[in-house]
């Protein structure tokens, strides 16, 4: 079973910065992994703590993170940010 990917408006803005940059390949690899199983132990995600509890973070590179939330009921990964760390 695969998960749907949904981008919030802020993540869409980040995607414009990523497209055509050296980060694009890493970003697309992470998206494919999230589509398969966003909570697989081998994903290397970090579970974020309050005030953003319930969110997860994946490194795109040393500076940039992909921040997302998983809706198990609808099998959807909602991406909130894909640029600077926790902005």
* Percent of residues in β-strands: 25-35%
* CATH topology group: YaeB-like fold
Give the biggest sheet. 5 strands, mixed
**Beta strand count:** 5
Provide the helix percentage: 25-40%
Average pLDDT value?
90
The CATH architecture designation is 2-Layer Sandwich
Number of helices: 2
Global morphology: globular
What's the level 1 CATH class? Alpha Beta
Report the end-to-end length measured between terminal Cα atoms: 31 Å
Give Rg in angstroms: 12 Å
Spatial sequence of strands, sheet with the most strands: 1-5-4-3-2
CATH superfamily: RelE-like
Family: Belongs to the YoeB family.
Keywords: Endonuclease, Hydrolase, Nuclease, Toxin-antitoxin system
GO molecular function: endonuclease activity; hydrolase activity
InterPro entries: RelE/ParE_toxin_dom_sf, YoeB_toxin
Observed structural traits:
87 residues; YaeB-like fold; five-stranded mixed β-sheet
Describe the structure in your own words.
The protein is of the alpha+beta class and 87 residues long. The protein has one domain: 2-Layer Sandwich (YaeB-like fold). Helix content is 26%, strand content 26%. The protein has helices at 9-18, 24-36; strands spanning 4-7, 46-47, 56-59, 65-71, 76-81. It has a five-stranded mixed beta sheet with strand order 1-5-4-3-2. Strand 3 and strand 4 form a beta hairpin. The radius of gyration is 12 Å and the shape is globular.
């Amino acid at each position: 079973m695969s998960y749907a990917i949904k981008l919030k408006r802020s993540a869409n803005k980040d995607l414009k910065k990523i497209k055509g940059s050296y980060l694009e390949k890493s970003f697309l690899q992470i998206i494919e992994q999230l589509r398969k199983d966003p909570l697989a132990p081998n994903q290397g995600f970090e579970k974020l703590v309050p005030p953003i509890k319930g969110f997860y973070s994946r490194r795109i590179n040393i500076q940039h993170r992909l921040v997302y939330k998983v809706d198990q009921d609808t099998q959807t990964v909602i991406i909130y940010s894909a640029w600077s760390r926790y902005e």
